[in-house]
Design a protein that fits this description.
Oligomer: single chain
Distance between the termini: 35 Å
Number of strands: 10
Mean pLDDT: 94
Strand order of the largest sheet: 6-7-8-9-4-3-10
Radius of gyration: 15 Å
Number of helices: 1
Order of helices and strands: EEEHEEEEEEE
Strand content: 35-45%
Bound molecules: zinc ion
CATH architecture of one domain: Beta Complex
Length: 133
């Protein structure tokens, strides 16, 4: 069981199954979306995801291709990614404790911010997975 919550604690959720496919994307769009050097995101089975509290104060932003993010309107934490109004993944920053997964790959490292220093020894790709750095 994985649980997560926003910064102010009003919004909480649980995932009854495992997180999958954890990755970090360093593209300029993910930097904006996650307000950080990169995304840190893992996929979930939509049927295994449940909001426990605060669903009523969630706000959504949906981008061009139908993918969106949901965040707490009170504190601004970005909690999950949605597609067709279903939760398809969670931001690792809002996960509590040890979710028993590690970031498996770093993608779009070729467009990382100039100020970001990428540690050595991690699996990284200049763009997507087909394009090893
Ligand atoms: Zn909050
Ligand atoms: Zn990205």
């Amino acid at each position: 069981m994985v649980t997560g919550e926003c910064f102010c604690g009003e919004v909480t959720y649980q995932v009854s199954g495992k997180l999958r496919d954890a990755k970090s994307c360093h593209c300029s769009r993910c930097r904006k979306a996650f307000s950080s050097q990169a995304s840190a995101y893992a996929a979930v089975d939509p049927q295994e995801f449940t909001w426990l509290s605060g669903e009523n104060i969630l706000t959504s932003y949906v981008g061009e291709q139908g993918f969106g993010l949901q965040f707490c309107s009170q504190c601004g934490s970005t909690l999950c990614g949605i597609f067709n109004e279903k939760v398809h993944g969670v931001t690792l920053g809002c996960v509590n404790g040890d979710p028993d997964i590690e970031i498996g790959m770093h993608i779009y490292v070729g467009s990382k911010a100039t100020w970001e220093v990428i540690p050595e020894g991690i699996l990284q790709y200049k763009e997507d997975v087909s394009d090893s750095l």
